[in-house]
Amino acid sequence: MTTALPVPTLKAGPAGLTLEGVALADIAERFGTPTYVYSRAALTQAYEAYQRALGLRKSLVCYAVKANSSLGILSVFAKLGAGFDIVSRGELARVLAAGGDAGKVIFSGVGKSADEMRYALESGIGCFNVESAAELDRLNEVAGSMGKRAPIAFRVNPDVNPNTHPYISTGLRSNKFGVAFTEALDLYRKAATLPNIEISGIDCHIGSQLLDPAPMAEAADKILGLVDQLAREGITLDHIDLGGGLGIRYRDEEPPTPTEYLKPLLERFAGRDEALCFEPGRSLVGNAGLLLTRIEYLKPGVEKSFAIIDAAMNDLARPALYDAYHEIVAVAPRAVPATRYEVVGPICESGDFLGHDRDLSVETGDLLAILSAGAYGMTMSSNYNTRPRAAEVLVDGDTVHVIRDRETLEHLLKGERPLP
Ligand code: LLP
User: Fold this and answer.
1) Burial status of residue 277 (CB atoms within 10 A of its CB: 0-12, 13-18, 19 or more)
2) For a tag site, which of 31, 203, 276, 411 has the least CB within 10 Å?
3) DSSP readout, 54-66?
4) Does 51 fall in a domain?
5) Pocket of ligand 1 (CB under 6 A)
6) How remote is the CA of residue 417 from the centroid of ligand 1, in Å?
7) In this structure, are 275 and 334 located in the same domain?
8) What is the pLDDT of residues 249-275, one digit of tens each?
């Protein structure tokens, strides 16, 4: 059973499941449930797998903050020397608060406001990934008004199909992201004439939860063609950013390792001077975290039986939103035959499920761990049904750090007022 768990530092022992040196039952006892629980060792291993794969290549791994933007998580990557991929002023503020290096920050996103540009320029970020001609003009203007030059890369849409969920595929011509491949050359020519713009790189990101390295290699070929064409026109780049997207195992997927994923890319860029950048999110944090929850009620039904837990779609939206599968395991399974349950939350929606048809040997009050919840879990949580958001803890060996307090009703009502 142990080897089947996708969270590498989670083990089954006599005290039930333990993460690194800490029993999940102790965490529930001390901090309550629902609680997001992360493993520092798993975060570090995931980051180091990229570093190992990149070897001595001039490169930068920019963690995609949107996957999990908690300060505790960001500080782990900042200490490891990572860069960061951000998409908002708020994410940049988080990176800086967590001790990240502004010079290693790249700013992606289709809708950057002038305020966000100013804040990023003041902070001295490494690069703006520009996604339209209009954005280029605005950035030139904003930088000019501050007496600065803005470093840019164009996010080029290579028009390849990444074969993933339609909501998280971004590199097709029909997506809103990036500039069209056919327009990229002209945009670079234009950028080269703008006084407050400094051309620094090129970027692409084709989608998320990619399990096949081939579409990425196809995108890299297209990007490389463009880089060579630019060089012929005297436009040289200091970095090539190939985005994020490497998938993880939620159930029985067999994603490539960073080494396997990067191999065809490193081969293509061998011997070139540009630094290679990546923007991984899910593959750095997804399987370093789980959502710890308690069963409130077991409700036998005629057609289905329900395990009603204290976590819900507001805590982990992925099942409701994408019909995503997350492994759900009992923290201390009972010696009774398993019953098949719909694992659901207390929210008033039929879409409020965390898992369908799960065989569990449990009783009311038992703890469950919802696995692979480190990425796009807490960051996509909400207060729907006026539910305070979960606490977050980071396990580091035998130590448990509370990296976010559980929200209280005071947090939730703050800033609101009834009519007089
Ligand atoms: N770079 C850019 C420009 C992105 O838009 C994203 C993710 C990443 C990097 C990181 O991709 P990753 O390595 O995590 O695949 N909420 C969805 C995923 C949305 C991904 C959005 N962009 C989910 O829960 O599956």
Assistant:
1) buried
2) 411
3) HTTSSEEEEEEGG
4) no
5) 64, 67, 85, 108, 168, 205, 208-209, 243-246, 279-283, 318, 375-376
6) 36
7) no
8) 999 999 999 999 999 999 999 999 999
